[in-house]
Amino acid sequence: SQQGEEDPQALSIQEGENATMNCSYKTSINNLQWYRQNSGRGLVHLILIRSNEREKHSGRLRVTLDTSKKSSSLLITASRAADTASYFCATDEDNYGQNFVFGPGTRLSVLP
Amino acid sequence: EAGVTQSPTHLIKTRGQQATLRCSPISGHTSVYWYQQALGLGLQFLLWYDEGEERNRGNFPPRFSGRQFPNYSSELNVNALELEDSALYLCASSLEAGLYTEAFFGQGTRLTVV
After folding, report:
1. How far apart are CA B111 and CA B114, in angstroms?
2. Which of A75, A109, B29, B47 falls between 20 and 30 A from B96, CA-CA?
3. Does residue B8 have a cis bond before it (omega within 30 degrees)?
4. Which band of pLDDT confidence, cut at 50, 70 and 90, is reported for residue A77?
């Protein structure tokens, strides 16, 4: 089964609004990463948050991690039409497997 | 600095043929990962190579194989192509195989099997 599960599956907001996407996972992790994908193209790495971190910021992005709830959230503030994309969370397995496990993603549409 | 590059961008094959996809990692990266993203689905882990060796393999049949060359570039081979192999194949690289490494992705090869 998928390790990371994003929620919601699809989200539509107006430009300027904030967008929040959530990710839940099942087993213990060492780190969690968020990626963006535009229209079936390659993934763009957004943020990596380690298991001993609770929050990280990068520009308009804020990521939180709650290891007790096995969940993470990605907040995009003051959204723009260019933020329209699919967003994925990826976790690593708690061993040397190093195969990042992706959820099905959240499709974000930012309407002008 | 050049990112992860994949070739070809698009590939059309007929059922039963073989496909070869190529990936060049970011300079200095020794780990290469392959993923399959079928239409409407999430990314499925295929293979992980590090220092020229296969380190891990996803839940795919043996007709999916690959290798990593001494310069750390990699090939993914898919034999006896089936229609359901049509997908975007993404390659990623990371600096090393470790617990906190970030993976960087290429733009992908879109394989269409007809």
Report:
1. 10
2. A75
3. yes
4. very high
Among B84, B56, B52, B53, residue whose Cα is nearest residue B69: B52
Q: Taking 60 as the threshold, does the pLDDT of residue A97 lie above it?
A: no
**From the centroid of its chain, how far is CA A75?**
9
**CB pair distance less than 8 Å for B88 and A50:** no
Q: Which of B24, B43, B109, B110 to mutate to test the interface with A (most CBs of A within 10 A)?
A: B43
Q: Which two tokens stand for residue B29?
A: 């990266």
Distance CA B80, CA B38 (A): 18
Q: How far is CA B78 from CA A59, A73, B20, B114, in A?
A: 40, 36, 7, 14
- CB-based contact B56 A88, cutoff 8 Å: no
> What is the rounded CA–CA span in Å between residue B31 and residue B41?
24
* Rama region for B28: left / alpha / beta (φ>0; ψ in -120 to 50; rest): left
Q: Minimal Cα distance from B104: which residue of A?
A: A45
CA distance A11 to A86: 10
